Amino acid sequence: MVMAAGFPDNRIATDLAFSGSGLEKTYQTGETQVHALRGVDLAVPRGEMLVLLGPSGSGKSTLLNIIGGLDRPTSGKLFYRNTELTAFDDRELTRYRRAEVGFIFQFYNLIPSLTAEENVRLVTDIADDPMDPAEALALVGLAERRGHYPAQLSGGEQQRVAVARAVAKRPGVLLCDEPTGALDSSTGVRVLETLERAHNELGTTVIIITHNVGIAAMAHRVMHFRDGQIAKIEVNEHPVEPGKISW
Ligand SMILES: Nc1ncnc2c1ncn2[C@@H]1O[C@H](COP(=O)(O)OP(=O)(O)OP(=O)(O)O)[C@@H](O)[C@H]1O
């Protein structure tokens, strides 16, 4: 059984999306060493909505990248469900990423020469059990805009296409690094609503990095990072709907 500080109840390890212990990440650049993670233990229940908060440079993106199989820790162990990610070779890590992880970044990274639907189809064409791209776009409220190119869509709409692209393969986990960082409050709320909808309808575990304390209100739990460590974990007994958040 894996337990960790702040773990909300007594669910057993098989109900965990992620469990990690002693995660450290050291970047060596020339003579300089940066300790981005300094011994992180974590347990993330399946289906949780988790927010990571903390000052710039505190290690949030480093952890998210390790969770998403984009990077490896210098030491420590990380499990996805019952499988040890830190024992994977590069091919296994790529397979894990393709099958299980949807990424959403601050900038939408859509391909400008493809329509919204074609952008989503890029992912569904190589997924095992994908949604129809039109269904994924309907989930984010953009069914009618599926033939539009990114330049014909607002920033918030483009981010919703990015959410559709991320959820269309029915990933086990959605990892979001500043998903509303480039958006104003009301547009950002619509993006958060689409994330919550994907979370509710697909049961996806969602981890969101943000600098925006207001967004933490929609999470089940909030992990506060400081100097490469989890400084504090808050449990939200009553997460609020994104529509009630503003900044
Ligand atoms: N590839 C890299 N090479 C060297 N140092 C790095 C690298 N990536 C991150 N770092 C350093 O590791 C530390 C943690 O960075 P990280 O991006 O995880 O922080 P963060 O909390 O996500 O910050 P932000 O909120 O600004 O995105 C920082 O000091 C950063 O400069």
TrEMBL record:
Pfam families: ABC_tran (PF00005). Keywords: ATP-binding, Cell inner membrane, Cell membrane, Membrane, Nucleotide-binding, Transport. Residues 21-245 form the ABC transporter domain. InterPro entries: AAA+_ATPase, ABC_transporter-like_ATP-bd, ABC_transporter-like_CS, ABC_transpr_LolD-like, MacB-like_ATP-bd, P-loop_NTPase. GO terms for cellular component: membrane protein complex; plasma membrane. Transmembrane segments: none annotated. GO terms for molecular function: ATP binding; ATP hydrolysis activity; transmembrane transporter activity. SMART domains: AAA. Belongs to the ABC transporter superfamily. Macrolide exporter (TC 3.A.1.122) family. This is ABC transporter related protein. It comes from Novosphingobium pentaromativorans US6-1. The lineage of its organism: Bacteria, Pseudomonadati, Pseudomonadota, Alphaproteobacteria, Sphingomonadales.
